[in-house]
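Researcher: Let's do a round of design. I'm pasting the structure tokens now; please hold your answer until I've finished.
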């Protein structure tokens, strides 16, 4: 099968979508399929299977290259898909590369699979300048290229109660309804999409890690906190308001005997530095944006991973990486509990800094919990491998091909 992955974000930029596509590509290629990635890039890729879409000069919101113009991207995709004999277009985002993917695929009669990776209603509210205005512009530009007529948003849902949120939910639901099949990595996000009117056939299918990542992690043994050791904690993600990094810093301040590293960069970098300015030297190290290999190295030295996002994340890849590393996981969002292996993670009693600090102190005071949670994560390791989910992904492609005939 010849597959095109179309995305607004790809390597060498860092993020969960990029990691998912990399894992999909590796697993599919190992099974004998050919995968091409079409994305905006700061410069052309040396990899012939990564195709640069028309990219704006001097404009990279939140550090990501930006597809521009939509018409030029659609033309480039039409030529690229046709020349490579693409049979399935798999779209991973909702911005202009994605819209170009829909336009090109429809013109050529190629089935479209859409993965809904996350809550762009929260992302745009947190990251875009003057979001009340910019989301209007974004929604209008999206609607010009992909009709929003098939989206009837339920504004009684708390997460869709504002006009700004409704715009972005209408965008997400419309795009999903224009696909031939939709993939959602988590049940909690799938339920919201269905509640908001997604009618396209939908499959809940977990993301996974490629075999090269699992090989780099190796065969972990259960974590042990030696007597007298500090609890070593790692946080990894975009330093952006929707990820709530300052909640992590505030919890650390309330948790003596805990030392932490943060991996990631973003618009909240200065705010995090300011929040951490009164911590004792060595208690928190902010590493910034680093390659995945360095994140895995940091996990290898840690006792526990913390995720502080709330009502935003779908299925964070960093949690899958932690599980593969045998690292216990603390989450503050009850929705993310479905990701955690039984006995391998914990949801804080409250999502605020006080709730997280209480959990950190509990683990600090009873290190045997870390060892038992780590063992549970290790026993679940095969479930986070992309190869475990590859056949289900291929089944989705086959279903999309069948429905399009």
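Researcher: That's everything. Go ahead.
Model: Designed sequence:
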């Amino acid at each position: 099968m010849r597959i095109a992955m179309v995305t607004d974000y790809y390597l060498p930029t860092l993020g969960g979508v990029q990691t998912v596509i990399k894992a999909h590509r590796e697993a599919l290629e190992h099974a004998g399929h050919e995968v091409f990635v079409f994305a905006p890039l700061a410069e052309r890729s040396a990899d012939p299977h990564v195709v640069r879409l028309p990219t704006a000069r001097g404009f990279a919101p939140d550090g990501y290259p930006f597809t521009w113009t939509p018409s030029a991207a659609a033309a480039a995709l039409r030529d690229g898909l046709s020349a490579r004999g693409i049979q399935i277009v798999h779209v991973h985002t909702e911005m202009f590369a994605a819209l170009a993917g829909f336009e090109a695929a429809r013109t050529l009669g190629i089935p479209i699979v859409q993965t809904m990776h996350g809550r762009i209603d929260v992302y745009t509210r947190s990251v875009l300048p003057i979001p009340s205005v910019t989301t209007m512009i974004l929604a209008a530009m999206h609607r010009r290229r992909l009709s929003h007529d098939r989206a009837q948003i339920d504004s009684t849902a708390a997460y869709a109660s504002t006009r700004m949120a409704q715009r972005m939910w209408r965008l997400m639901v419309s795009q999903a309804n224009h696909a031939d099949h939709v993939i959602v990595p988590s049940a909690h996000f799938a339920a919201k999409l269905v509640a908001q009117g997604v009618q396209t056939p939908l499959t809940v299918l977990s993301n996974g890690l490629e075999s090269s990542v699992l090989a780099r992690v190796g065969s972990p043994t259960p974590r042990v906190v030696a007597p007298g050791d500090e609890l070593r904690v790692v946080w990894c993600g975009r330093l952006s308001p929707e990820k709530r990094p300052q909640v992590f810093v505030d919890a650390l301040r309330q948790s003596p005997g805990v030392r932490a590293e943060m991996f990631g960069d973003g618009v909240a970098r200065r705010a995090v530095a300011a929040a951490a300015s009164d911590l004792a030297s060595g208690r928190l190290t902010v590493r910034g944006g680093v390659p995945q290999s360095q994140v895995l190295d940091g996990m290898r030295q840690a006792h526990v991973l913390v995720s502080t996002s709330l009502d935003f994340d779908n299925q964070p890849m960093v949690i899958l990486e932690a599980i593969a590393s045998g690292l216990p996981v603390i989450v503050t969002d009850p929705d993310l509990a479905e990701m955690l292996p039984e006995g391998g993670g914990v949801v804080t009693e409250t999502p605020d800094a006080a709730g997280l600090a209480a959990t950190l102190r509990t683990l600090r005071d009873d290190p045997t919990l870390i060892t038992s949670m780590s063992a549970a994560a290790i026993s679940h390791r095969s479930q986070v491998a992309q190869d475990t989910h590859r056949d289900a992904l291929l089944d989705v492609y086959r279903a999309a091909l069948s429905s399009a005939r």
